[in-house]
Amino acid sequence: MSRVLVLLCGLLLPAGLAAAVFKCIGPQGQHSYQDHPCPADHVAHTLHGGSFSLVTREPYQLRALQDSRQQTARQAGTLQQEQAKAQQLRQRQLVQQRKHCSRLHNRHHTLQRQLSRSRSALQTQRLQSRLASLSKDLHDAACPS
C-alpha cells in the first residue's frame, strides 16, 4: 500500500510544478510575479514550467548588449581602417623603392656606357670608382639585378 502511495505522489508532483507563472510589468515599470493572470493595465509575460532557467533580458540589458555590439563593430571598423592605411603605406614605400632602384639602374647603365667610351686612364679610374660606389648603393637598397 505504501508503494502505491509513493508512486501516486511521484506522478502528481510534476503536475504541480508545471504550473504557469505570470510576470507582470506595471505602468510605472514595477515587476511582479504571480500564479494568476495580470491585471488589464499590466504587460504580461507567461513563464511556463521548465523555462524558469531561461534568463529574460530587460530593455536596459538589451540596450547594453546592443551598445556593446556597436562598440565591437566600431573597433573592428577602426582596426580595418588602420590595416588599410598600413597597406597603403607599404604600397607607397614599395613604389618609392622601385623608383629609387630604377634611377640607380639607369645611372649604372649610363656610367657603364661612359666607361666603355673613356679614352684616358684617369677618366676610366674615376668611372670605375663611381661604378663601384653605385653597385654598393644598389646592394644597400636591395634592388634586384
TrEMBL record:
Cite the InterPro entries for this sequence.
DUF4124
Taxonomic classification, please?
Bacteria, Pseudomonadati, Pseudomonadota, Betaproteobacteria, Neisseriales
For this UniProt record, the keywords arranged alphabetically read as follows: Signal
Q: Where is the DUF4124 domain?
A: 11-45
In its keyword annotation, does this UniProt entry include Signal? yes
Recorded protein name is Uncharacterized protein DUF4124
Composition bias (Low complexity) maps to: 79-90
Q: Where is the composition biased (Polar residues)?
A: 67-78
Q: Please give the residue ranges the record annotates as the region Disordered.
A: 66-90
Provide the leader sequence positions: 1-19
Out of the domains of life, which is the source?
A: Bacteria
Origin organism is: Aquitalea magnusonii
